[in-house]
Design brief:
Distance between the termini: 57 Å
CATH class of the largest domain: Alpha Beta
Order of helices and strands: HHHHHEHEHEHEEHEEHEEE
CATH architecture of the largest domain: 3-Layer(aba) Sandwich
Strand order of the largest sheet: 6-2-1-7-8-10-9
Helix content: 25-40%
Strand content: 15-25%
């Protein structure tokens, strides 16, 4: 056990598994990441190899361990108000043009630990005020969804939150929660979290005016990107906006959306 190492063959097994389940293409450069994230689970089950752990997942995945492995292998870095230009675009162009009297719906489709949906919720609460809006946030990882629902973060994570949002929507931890901040309950209650695997048939979520699908397609191959976007397009309202990461593109993925500015697309 002290010399636990992930062989190339074992890595390829996990590589194929996460691709089949989540559509994520892991390059050979991710071998160290896979080894590091799964090592504790191998030890937890007192197994002798990563291969033994893979067989446990395949044979006994239904007992919850498969979800644990998926959570570990699909968790990605995120932060509040990431790619600020998207939030500026929402404030300056999308929200002022919304139809009055109609509920405004937003989907954060890869919400991770909650920073993106809470950033959106702060913006919506600020700009729309008493107007009706709904925010659905989804992720494949149950662990990340639990973390997001809790809305509790280390204080250093607050550095990108505008000061007036921080004082209005967040609570500073004291006592045993010192060094942390909590998203206020009123805002937390406005975000509906759902477990959704974008690589499968989507649940009935309704129609959205805006979908954020940011910094997740970089993990998909070309065909998976096409399938994921094709599944999502029926859920985007005519005239609705799809936001992707600044380093991503829909070139060769779909012809059904119009580029507004780089990384922002609109459905005719």
């Amino acid at each position: 056990m002290n010399n636990l190492a992930l062989s190339d063959h074992e890595f390829r097994q996990f590589q194929a598994m996460i691709y089949d389940i989540a559509g994520i293409s892991m390059s050979s450069a991710k071998k160290t990441l896979v080894s590091g994230r799964l090592a504790k689970r191998v030890k937890h089950h007192r197994l002798n190899s990563y291969g033994d752990y893979f067989h446990l997942l395949i044979n006994k995945g239904g007992d919850g361990e498969l979800q644990v492995a998926i959570d570990l292998l699909t968790t990605n870095e995120t932060y509040f108000f990431r790619e600020q230009k998207h939030f500026d675009f929402m404030r300056d162009l999308v929200l002022p043009a919304r139809k009055p009297g109609k509920q405004f719906r937003v989907w954060s489709a890869a919400s991770s630990s909650g920073e993106e949906p809470y950033s959106l919720a702060m913006l919506l609460a600020d700009v729309l005020g008493d107007a009706s809006w709904e925010l659905v946030a989804s992720d494949i990882s149950l662990r990340m969804l639990e973390k997001a629902r809790a809305g509790l973060y280390p204080m250093e994570r607050a550095e990108n939150i505008p000061r007036h949002y921080l004082t209005r929507f967040c609570l500073k931890g004291v006592g045993c929660q010192e060094g942390m901040f909590l998203i206020g309950r009123e805002l937390r209650d406005r975000v509906k979290y759902r477990q959704v695997n974008l690589n499968e048939t989507l649940p009935k979520l309704g129609e959205f005016d805006v979908i954020f699908l940011r910094n997740v397609m970089i993990y998909f191959d070309a065909e998976t990107k096409r399938q994921v976007v094709a599944r999502m397009l029926p859920l985007l309202a005519p005239g609705g906006y799809l936001f992707i990461g600044h380093s991503e593109s829909l070139n060769g993925v779909t012809d059904d959306l119009t580029v507004v500015v780089p990384s922002v697309y609109r459905k005719p």
